[in-house]
Amino acid sequence: MNLALWIAAGLLAAVSLTGGITKTFIPKEKLAAIKGGEWTGHASAGFIKTIGVLELLAAVGLILPAVLDIAPIMVPVTAACWILLMVGAAIIHGRLGQSTLVIVNLGCVVLATFIAWGRFGPEPFTG
């Protein structure tokens, strides 16, 4: 179970890191032109960058607290916050008729739920 939780956290951190870098460093106009990035055309640049920074922090929060053994409780807390972020993303993509991206968002919700449940419950980092 511990290995499965680490793998799930690694996958989610990779997704978060990719999205965070994209939203933080690629200009809004370029994001809006990419398939799946149409939602950015309706959002402010500041909002997009804020989401990007939150995703970068999530990538860190899913891995480093446990690896460094500094506040490892932040791993399931980060996963719980990721659930909220992905539900919001699914709503936005759903309103735009992007069902494939809604499925991706819901897949991330499943992974984050597994991590939060596993680390709060049967496989916490602290004994």
From TrEMBL:
<feature type="transmembrane region" description="Helical">
    <location>
        <begin position="6"/>
        <end position="26"/>
    </location>
</feature>
<keyword id="KW-0472">Membrane</keyword>
<feature type="transmembrane region" description="Helical">
    <location>
        <begin position="73"/>
        <end position="92"/>
    </location>
</feature>
<dbReference type="InterPro" id="IPR032808">
    <property type="entry name" value="DoxX"/>
</dbReference>
<feature type="transmembrane region" description="Helical">
    <location>
        <begin position="99"/>
        <end position="120"/>
    </location>
</feature>
<feature type="transmembrane region" description="Helical">
    <location>
        <begin position="47"/>
        <end position="67"/>
    </location>
</feature>
<keyword id="KW-0812">Transmembrane</keyword>
<dbReference type="Pfam" id="PF13564">
    <property type="entry name" value="DoxX_2"/>
</dbReference>
<keyword id="KW-1133">Transmembrane helix</keyword>
<protein>
    <submittedName>
        <fullName>DoxX-like family protein</fullName>
    </submittedName>
</protein>
<dbReference type="GO" id="GO:0016020">
    <property type="term" value="C:membrane"/>
</dbReference>
